[in-house]
Amino acid sequence: MLITTDEIPHTKSPEQKTSWRCAVCGFLFEGEKPPKGCPVCHSPSSEFIPNGAREPLRYDGEKFDVLVINGSTHRAGNSGYMADLAEAVLRERGVSYRRYNVSEYAIDYCWCCYAVRAESCSYPCRNKNDDMPAFHAMLAASKAVIVVSPINWNGMSARLKAFLDRTTCMENLFHLNKPGLTEGKVAGILICGHEDGAIKTAMDIWLNFQQLGYVLAPFGIAFRTHGSQFNSSTDREFFRNDELIVRHTRGVVNNVIEMMQLGIEENVKGKLVPVTE
Fold this sequence. Notes:
Radius of gyration: 19 Å
Number of helices: 8
CATH topology of the largest domain: Rossmann fold
CATH class of the largest domain: Alpha Beta
Number of domains: 2
Order of helices and strands: EEEEEHEHEHHEHEHHH
Structural class: alpha/beta
Distance between the termini: 38 Å
Strand order of the largest sheet: 6-5-7-8-9
Number of strands: 9
């Protein structure tokens, strides 16, 4: 059954001071504070964000070192916790960064212009109607990317897949014999989930960045799962009390920083032979 946006419940409280939107399912609530939980998708209150007219994402052109992408549908869930840990290391090391939760932004599916003809898949992307052009610009401007993903059916989230699909216009620069924007940059990948699929998810993400010319940091992948024998409602407590997820996440971020500071991007610019599909 198709459910339209108009059918999403909209609850009002007496205060009516602020409109809140669940970033997962779109449920709307009006009150001084967000509700204790979403009655539609059962997400906790931390998934609610202020609702209202939103300006398209714009990149201000200021250079920074690391782009942190939380690819989870639940911006404040377990993947969000890994992103928080990554941010802490970047701050401690004095590394400039920007962190984005994809669930908060408008990212359309790829139009697959390449399927019509290679020249149609051009950069800047032909779809200028969502937030992805700003992310394209930040991928080009940053020196490294750290991607955090949950495990959804032995793979990444649909929102992160849409994000990665939309980088095709940057990859296609190499096929059109145009200067690339991403070769020699550094990547790190962080995965967490309830059960199986961590390595597959990490490899699927890495393949995308490898085709863009990124270099995976040594020991640049970390993953942590809880286990199918446990109820998923216990995952949050487990991850937030787990020393291994902290140690491994901090290790990957440290390794990305060390690799980035070697200046590999500057040293290989113009020297690599693009081999992409």
